[in-house]
Please model this.
Amino acid sequence: MPANIVTTEDLHVFKQELLTELKEFVSTLQPPKWLKSPQVRKLLGVSPGSLQNLRVNGTLPYTKIGGVIYYAYEDILRVMEENKRNKLW
Model:
């Protein structure tokens, strides 16, 4: 079996590729600051009507820009924490 020679340039290219992939991976771990309605519905497991009710009754704050509704990720976490229930077995 012939030997493969790894050059300094090969290592540099490998490093750049690895850094790019790591940056992409890390960016998926951090939740975005703002979420759109479909993302919030999926996160909470609610229907469009239920999400609308959360907006209308003031439970979940939102921002509307150009017809698109945005929700702050921190607000979603806060609402979930405020509505957490303890189950007694």
